[in-house]
Design brief:
The complex is a heterodimer of chains A (557) and B (339). Chain A has 18 helices and 20 strands. Chain A is an alpha+beta fold and 557 residues long. In chain A, strands 1, 8, 9, 10, 11, 12, 13, 14, 15, 16, 17 and 18 form a 12-stranded mixed beta sheet that branches. A 4-stranded antiparallel beta sheet of chain A has the order 4-5-7-6. In chain A, α10 runs antiparallel to α12, α15 packs antiparallel against α17 and α17 packs antiparallel against α18. Chain B starts with a helix and ends in an 11-residue tail after the last helix. Chain B is an all-alpha fold. Chain B is built from 13 helices and no strands. Chain B is 74% helix and 0% strand. Classes of the chains: A alpha+beta (557), B mainly alpha (339). Chains A and B meet through α1, β10 and α8 of A and α5, α7, α9, α10 and α11 of B.
Chain lengths: 557, 339
């Protein structure tokens, strides 16, 4: 340094200036920090605006559950924007009144008469102002849209109604008639005891006929599934792809009044980011908490974790249309060679119940006296020998590429199964591909066996039996075992032709016995479902039958 | 002065032209039809517009000409993934990026330059060594890691600050300018103050993450310049003449040091923008970097092309302008012939 004496003085003077500046900066910093300390949570919502933020996993395809079975679409629309004629009670699974206050079923079970609720207002939004309340015309419009192929709205936005198509409902319903403004009559071709349950699923949403008319005049009919109008607790405000969906309170909602002003879906595809946002309080609740994070969440006093047995089944289906899986002995041998308890430990982290049949214990059709298959490799080898495969054989095993409630990690499960089958000299080739190709390969029957599962859409046990194992379900692509057993079909069809629960129970007991005897698939687990939320909201419960429901969610701050 | 202005203007035009050329050629390098990559639309027999015409029967020069013309008219094509015009999308996301860049640059300047000066004056003293080693550490921080670290400490552990977005989704502020603080001030919603406070909270962590490295670079640059100026003859002369320190500082040191600092800051602009884009991704900041990385994931070629063109143009424009200003205020510019 080449400062002279006087410059030293100067530098002191300068130093005090700079130190002054610095201390000012640090003061500002301290002030900012102390401001922060005033509030504990960074997003502690101000009293002047209330809202619930749900971190969802993806973008919905439409805002109409009729035309999309994706759970993201259901979550975003089914219970927020719309109501159905009937609903499921989340606790008991019983069918309760929705937009229909009461209903009558004729003696022969072919005619259903619904009395509709009065004074139910549709949403009033910037894009549509209804001039009348909900009435029979809206019900007829909502049904005719998917029933009648010549209906002007049938082919709008794809013209596919996957849920109704998979159950052949359009062919079951003979007519939907208006008796008066608040009464409609639906007649069927044949008895179907699961019919009411199907009307209570997410997919049977009631749309506004007046809005459809309005859109036809504007010549923008496709808006009906993107700018939705319904009667539900929240009305649509704004959707920004990959960012958020904003709903506001429906002020004239018919059910109850105390709800937050807003409901916001914060679209956050990454599971760990959703978890982090839950911790920081940026989300009040999140979609699909990962099973490995559940324990961490349980340890956090601010996060409430709810657990409920899910209405689902994860299974290992054998392609019964191919040799050697045509032989029930071979199928039994393969099932006996697997230790299910290890799978429950290693794949589900014990967040599942062991499955005996395809029906979960929560359903009334469950029977506890169905024999379970216990791990027995000796017996398995003996059965293979009896079937003529003492030297074993090669087979492929399709492992699902996506995470689902009923199977969190199909690939690892497949590897475990491969190890077990090696003990009985069966060589397994694990195959997996992207989800679309995977499903098309399954439909063409390229698989020898597959690890997949099923989640119920309604509380009726028929929702498990008919789609999973009947002959009719082979072409529609839900019967992955490709199993066609006339006795089973007759039993299951007899079960929906009656309304008497005890009678139906007996039929399903028979069906369970047939499955246990024939083993078209090996049931593995019924996984629990989790719902996590911060302690600043209450009223959020797990809906076992489909999409999330925010109607009863309140803030408790 | 006019020559300098002209020279820089020329330079900007030429650079932008080269960028435009590169963005046009990208459409040919990406897989798929060049026309589709440029506009996001499929070239059909009945597709109207001079660009489609040029792609059907014209040569490459005509294609480039109409492409440039479309760009200048705001017809930037549509995104593959949303089928919405890219022009609107970009002007939705760009303000968020500029806002973050502006705050981070301001913070860096206000901390980096005073600290750098202090270190410069106390050259080879303890303060200097402290600042130098601190800035060395700061420069060495990978920005994405720093961002994650900040989130881990301040959001997840201490639960003090939010970790994503720029405003809690609860606050529905109508977008007018796109700059969140200005929008909030201009809005008439009753929860304005709460929203403003919330927006500030959202700003803190990303701003710190971006400005961390820039501050250190500014500090080091400033220190070097001060040390150099302090060692010159005219300062010594001034000191021996007994001028008070603030006179020496304001009249001689500051001006001369700034002359060498400004062009170096111009270079830092590209680093700054790059860091902003990384930080945006980590903090889910809805800016152009976040959007561009999303576009890269989704192979949205029209979006990638326009995003790159725009970001590079902005960097070029600001860097060149800053350099031009520093040249203009440099009294010795007459001696330097080339830009």
């Amino acid at each position: 340094m080449s400062f002279g004496q006087c410059s030293n003085n100067a530098s002191y003077r300068y130093r005090s200036l700079v130190i002054g500046m610095l201390s000012l900066v640090s003061l500002l910093g301290v002030a900012a920090c102390s401001q922060n300390n005033e509030k504990n949570s960074p997003t502690g919502h101000s009293s002047s605006i209330s809202g619930v933020i749900y971190c969802s996993e993806s973008n919905p395809g439409f805002f109409n559950p009729q035309i999309d079975t994706s759970s993201t679409t259901s979550d975003a629309s089914a219970h927020q924007i719309y109501n159905r004629l009937l609903d499921f009670d989340a606790q008991t699974g019983r069918i309760i009144p929705g937009l229909a206050t009461s209903w009558l079923v004729s003696k022969d079970g072919l005619t259903y008469t619904f009395q509709l609720r009065r004074n139910v207002a549709f949403h009033t939004t910037e894009y549509f102002q209804p001039t009348r309340n909900f009435n029979a015309d809206d019900v007829i419009f909502s049904f005719q849209r998917w029933l009648d192929e010549s209906h002007p709205y049938h082919h709008i936005n794809g013209g596919l109604y996957p849920y109704f198509d998979s159950l052949n409902l359009a062919q079951t319903i003979k007519s939907v008639k208006r008796i008066n403004g608040y009464r409609i009559e639906i007649s069927l071709f044949q008895r179907d005891s699961s019919f009411l349950a199907n009307l209570a699923t997410d997919f049977a949403a009631i749309l506004s006929a007046q809005y459809a008319q309005h859109l036809s005049i504007l010549n923008k009919p496709s808006d009906i599934d993107f700018l939705p109008i319904g009667t539900g607790p929240y009305q649509f405000k704004e959707f920004r792809k990959d960012q958020f969906i904003r709903f506001t309170q429906h002020p004239q909602y018919w059910q109850q009044t105390e709800r937050p002003q807003q409901l916001i879906f914060d679209i956050t595809p990454s599971s760990s980011l959703r978890f982090a946002k839950l911790v920081t309080g940026e989300c009040d609740t999140i979609a699909y908490p990962s099973q490995t994070e559940i324990e961490v969440m349980q340890a956090n006093p601010k996060i409430i974790v709810q657990e409920a047995p899910g209405l689902n089944i994860g299974f290992w289906a054998f392609n019964t249309s191919k040799a050697p899986f045509k032989d029930p002995k071979v199928r039994r041998a393969l099932a006996l060679a697997i230790d299910k308890s290890t799978i429950l430990d290693a794949i589900y982290f014990n967040s599942a119940t062991r499955a005996r049949s395809i029906i979960p214990p929560a359903s009334w059709a469950f029977s506890a006296d169905i024999p379970d298959l216990n791990y027995n490799p000796v017996k398995a080898r003996q059965l293979l020998k009896e079937a003529g495969y003492s030297n074993g054989f090669n087979m492929n095993l399709f492992a699902m590429p996506v995470v689902r409630d009923y199977n969190p990690d199909a690939r690892r499960m497949a590897e475990l199964i491969r190890t077990y089958l090696a003990e009985i000299s069966v060589t397994v080739d694990i195959q997996t591909s992207d989800w679309d190709k995977f499903r098309s390969d399954l439909s063409t029957g390229k698989h020898d066996s597959v690890l997949i599962g099923w989640s119920a859409d309604n509380g009726d046990p028929d929702n498990f039996y008919r789609p999973l194992l009947t002959c009719a379900a082979i072409p529609s692509g839900t019967n992955r075992a490709m199993w066609c057993h006339p006795e089973f079909d007759a039993t299951v069809n007899a079960a929906i032709a009656t309304d008497d629960i005890d009678e139906r129970k007996a039929f399903y007991q028979t069906a369970n016995e047939i499955i246990a005897r024939e083993i078209p698939l090996m049931p593995i687990a019924h996984a629990y479902r989790y719902s996590v939320h911060n302690d600043n909201i209450q009223g959020l419960t797990i809906n076992p039958y489909g999409g999330i429901r925010f109607a009863n969610v309140r803030e408790s701050r | 002065m006019l020559t300098t202005l002209l020279r820089y203007f020329n330079l900007i035009v030429i650079t932008l032209f080269i960028l435009l050329l590169i963005s046009f050629s990208l459409a040919f390098f990406f897989p798929g039809e060049p026309y589709t990559n440029l506009t996001g639309n499929i070239l059909l027999e009945e597709t109207v517009g001079p660009l489609a015409q040029a792609f059907r029967e014209g040569n490459i020069f005509q294609q480039f000409w109409y492409y440039a013309k479309n760009l200048s008219m705001g017809d930037w094509g549509v995104s593959f993934s949303t089928a919405l015009p890219l022009y609107d999308k970009i002007f939705q996301t760009l303000p968020a990026t500029l806002e973050l860049t502006f705050y981070a640059a301001t913070l860096s300047l206000f901390i980096g330059i005073p600290c750098g000066m202090l270190a410069g004056f106390l050259h080879h003293k303890k303060t200097d060594y402290t600042f130098m080693s601190m800035s060395m550490v700061m420069v060495s921080f990978p920005v994405f890691w720093l961002a994650l670290l900040l989130i881990l400490i301040f959001s997840l552990q201490l639960n003090l600050l939010p970790m994503s977005g720029r405003l809690s989704l609860l606050y529905d502020i109508p977008e007018t300018s796109g700059f969140v603080l200005i929008d909030i001030i201009n809005s008439t919603v009753p929860y304005r103050y709460a929203a403003f406070y919330d927006a500030i909270q959202h700003l803190i962590l990303p701003t710190i993450a971006v400005s961390f490295i820039t501050t250190a670079v500014f500090l080091r640059t400033t220190r070097r310049a001060i040390v150099d100026v302090m060692a010159t003859e005219y300062i010594k002369t001034a000191q021996t003449r007994g001028l008070p320190f603030y006179v020496i500082f304001s009249r001689h040191v500051l001006r001369n040091a700034m002359l060498s600092i400004l062009p170096l800051f111009a270079i830092q602009i590209s680093t700054l923008v790059t860091n902003v884009m990384i930080v945006e991704t980590v903090f889910s900041w809805p800016g152009i970097g976040h959007w561009l990385i999303q576009a890269i994931y989704e192979r949205d070629y029209p979006a990638i092309r326009i995003g790159m063109l725009l970001v590079s143009s902005i960097v070029v424009f600001f860097a060149m302008s800053l350099e031009c200003i520093s040249r203009l205020i440099d009294p010795s510019r007459g001696n330097k012939q080339y830009a």
